[in-house]
Amino acid sequence: MIVGTLVADVFIPGATSLKDKRRVVKSIVKRIQNRFNVSIVELENENLWQKAIIGIAIIGEEKEKIERQLQFVVNFMDADPRWEVIRVEMEWR
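RE: above sequence
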């Protein structure tokens, strides 16, 4: 069994308050969960109103399949105009 993890730093330019940030993060996190069936959570920067760190995990049998699924998630995140993905880091265990 292989665990694939992805950590993404995102910038939310339209957020002018924590309430704006939470609305964007919760909406996108829920869409990603529903579409890709992954575990996803905001990891850090919960009190910064324009930055967030998002963590995603997938478990599977084949590294290539997990890597492809994580890349689909990254592409989906990049396509959302409400935030900008600044950095992505993937790991496998």
